Structure formats: structure tokens, C-alpha cells
User: Fold AhpC/TSA family protein from Butyricimonas faecalis.
Amino acid sequence: MIFMRKILRLLLLVCIVVTTNSVFAQKTITIKGKVKFPYNRFNMEIIERQGFDKTIIDSCKVKDDGTYEFKMKVDKPGVYTLDCQKWQSVQFWAEDEDLEINFRGEDTARIKIKNPPYVYIKGGPNNEVMNLMNWNGYRGYQLMIGISQGVYRIPGIDDQTKQEVSGKFYDMLGDESRARIRFLAEHYADRNSVLAVLPALRGEENEELVQQVLARLESKNPNYAPLLKYKAEMAEAKAQKERLAEGKIAPEFSFPTPDGKKMLGPQDFKGKILVLDFWASWCGPCRAEIPHLKEAYKEYSNKGVAFFSVSIDKDNAAWRKAMKEENMPWAQVQAPKAGKDVMKQYQFSGIPYILVLDKEGKIVAKNLRGKALTDKLEELLSGKKKSVAMPAMGM
Assistant:
């Protein structure tokens, strides 16, 4: 009897192990397609992104006939990026659907414009949601290009007015995009890939909808790994947002000045109001904002306001060349690793990103440009609140 009980316990243990492994069993999906105009100096790559970090999961060459194929082992269902030879890319949901994804590629035109066409995913229900989400992003980007070109070609109005008009149109586009994202969340809450939609719905006005979607997913599978991961990330994002709220001390950092003789960060400017500007040499809107910063510097630098620019350039030579061209008369530093860590620390993805800190180093305003910046400085110096100017959109 003792022997039999041992055998039964062993069999039970084996069943538990087999059952547990089946829950977390790795699946293999096929991702294949064709590139019309291959650019064979670069591979096709499957990329996993975690915040500002990215990991190349797999890569392959495009064959002579333009085709490619991956056998992707999926142990973590979720959103991945398929990069086509560093020219086009598309986000897809990897779990249990085989996919066919065709790309146009770099094209053979003598003058190449990097504005690739929409990429459609042939897959299943989860990637139907990804197609709709990707289409929303694609159309929004195309409309922003159209608005910029249209507004900046209008004769007889100054750049400041053009910027303000463009900003109003961008806000309208943002509202429209969020409305479409809410539609996807409401009507595709039964799909696992709806988790890819929810990050675009941050904000109190969408909290109820997000909780409804999460509750529906939990009713299907409360221990679904991507669901648990999303909830943990949202909790951390909420905590980070609270740490960066107005009235909080701005996070400290120290980066080298151009001559390498000093390390500077926002903590070194306490005692003065600080305009903290994140920019890069390659960022057109950043360069367009510099004349406004110069005007603000001329007006306020002798009134207790300091200015401090932090470049997220990867290329040190490009940063130095831009500084020389722009001739900015205030403190400058370059963030290491193309600003990846400081962008995560300050929770921004678009530049220019301009903050104002008070004399104690507390955040008093974020994402200011043009008149919105000078209005805030005037308010802080005079103690009289001015009418709010619309903040422009980072690009």
C-alpha cells in the first residue's frame, strides 16, 4: 500500500508539471511575406520594445526572389515590431496566429522620400485589431504632414502664427485619433490584442473604459501574462506621473558640458527660475523653437531666470555643429545613450520638451513653447496669472 501511494503521488506530480507547462507552453508562429524593393544591406528584424529599450528577437535575410520567412518562438504573447531593412516597420501581435506581411521596401526612385505606405497584416482576429490601430496612426501621420505643408505655404503670415495654427489643427487630429482608439477599445474588448490599444487611452477621462476592458479580459483569463504585465506597467506609470507632477522636485541628473570641465543638471540652478529644454540637432521643431528661446533669454535672463538645454543627440559631432550654428548663449549638455535614460526619467517621447522649474527646483509647468513659455515666466516673476496660451505639440 505504501508503495502504491508513492506511485500515485508521483503520477499526480507528473500531471501537475505537465499541466503547468502546457499553460506556459511556447508556441511557434510563421511570419512570412515579400519585399517588393529589397534593400539587402540590412536584415529583416523582429524587435521587442520595453519602454525605451529594444531587443532584437530574431533576424533573417531577404531571399533573391524578395521573400522572407521567420519561425518565431513565442513564449511571451504581446506586441512586437517587424522591421523591414531599416526602411519600413509594422507592429503586430504575436501569440497563435500565422502572419503574412508584405512590404514595398525602399523603392528604386533616385530621390527617396522616407514616408512609407501603410503595411497590412494578413493574420487573425488579434491582428485585425493591430491593423485598425496601425491604420489610425498612419492616417494621423499623413494628415499632420498635409497640415504642416498646407499651413507653412500660406503667404503673408509669420512663423509664430503658422505654428499656432498648426498646433490647433494638431490638437483636432489628436482628439479625432483618441475617439477612434476609444471605439476600438469598446468594440474589440474580447480580443487579447486590445491590450495594445489601451496605452493610448491614458487619462482620467478614459479610466472607466480602460477598467471595463480589463475586467472583460480578466473574466476570460485572470492569469493571462500580458494582462498582468500591462497592469504592473500602468501602476508604475501612475507612480512615475505622480513623481513628475507639478509641485514635485524635478529629477536630478548630471551630464558633461561641451568642454568637459563641468557636470550640470537641474539641481545646479536652484535659486533661479529654470527653463529646462530637451532638444536634438536633427529635430526640426526644436531648431524652430530656438529663436523663441533666444527672445525669452534676452528678456528674462537678467531677471533671475536661467536657461539650460539638454541634447539627446546620439552623434556628438552633430550636436556640436548645431550648437555652433544656433549660437545659444546658455548652458548646454549632452545626455548619454541618445537620452534614453533621461527620457525615461522625465517621461517624454517628443521634443522639444520644455519645462519650467521654480527657485526650489520644483516643476511648475511642462511642455511649453513660444508664447506659452513667456507667459509662464511673466506670471512667475510678476505673481500675476496670465491667460493660458495653448501649448504646442512636441514632434
Summary: The two ends are 74 Å apart (CA to CA).
